[in-house]
Structures are given as structure tokens and as C-alpha cells.
Write a structure and sequence with these properties.
mainly alpha; 2 domains; 5 helices; 72% helix; elongated
Length: 128
């Protein structure tokens, strides 16, 4: 899905995808300063009741998928770097640094397992 034609709707989608609450995203996109019931009501109406609402929710989901993919690649890159660091530390005889890197790796793999809803393997416990 391409950008939305209404630039305020697009900005609202971008802000919601970045984690802003609906009412704050609405206030920023529409230039509203108040944070009262009217702002919350307008944000909820934009999110659920207007003709554009399905397009807005679809666009937010698309932006969030892109964000998750980018984070996944970054996390994988970090895990690869930590693995290289652990190998270099072990080769240099710095076993404390190697163990620390391996603990960090284990934490990273648990994060990936939670993200992908894959339970850790019970036959290979990550205990240090």
C-alpha cells in the first residue's frame, strides 16, 4: 500500500506506527494542543468510525511490519557481531569476555524466540 493521499492521515499513521498513543498522534497530525476528551474522541473516531479508518489501520499495520523487519535485521546483525566477539575473546584467552558475550547471545536468542513465538528448546537449556 502506498502513502495515503491525505497527508494528515499519513502523518497520523506514521506516528501510531512509531508507538504514539492515538490521541497524541492525532494531536500532532492535526496541530491540536489540548489533551482532553475531545482529542481522544476525535482520535478514536478517526481510528474506527470514518470511511478512511480501514485504510488507516491497514497503513499502520504495513508500517509496523516494515519496522519489525528492520529491527529483526538489526538484531541479527548484533547477534552475529557478539558471536564474532566471543570467538575473538576465546582465541585471545580472554575467557571472561567470551562468557559475557555468550550470555548476551543467549539473551538475544531468547528475544528472537519470543518475537517469533517459538518456545526455547527444552533439550538445550541456556544456563550459565
Amino acid at each position: 500500500m502506498a502513502e495515503l493521499k491525505n497527508h494528515r492521515h499519513e502523518q497520523f499513521c506514521q506516528l501510531v506506527a512509531l508507538g504514539q498513543p492515538l490521541y497524541k498522534a492525532y494531536g500532532q497530525a492535526y496541530g491540536r494542543k489540548d489533551s482532553g476528551a475531545a482529542l481522544r474522541s476525535n482520535a478514536a473516531r478517526l481510528w474506527t468510525h470514518l470511511n478512511a479508518s480501514p485504510k488507516i489501520r491497514k497503513r499502520v499495520n504495513e508500517l509496523m511490519k516494515k519496522k519489525r523487519r528492520a529491527c529483526e535485521l538489526t538484531l541479527q546483525r548484533c547477534l552475529d557481531d557478539m558471536l564474532d566477539t566471543a570467538d575473538l575473546a576465546r582465541a585471545a584467552g580472554q575467557y571472561g569476555a567470551s562468557i559475557t558475550a555468550q550470555k548476551a547471545l543467549a539473551g538475544g536468542y531468547v528475544v528472537i524466540a519470543r518475537e517469533k513465538a517459538v518456545p526455547p528448546n527444552p533439550h538445550f537449556p541456556l544456563i550459565f
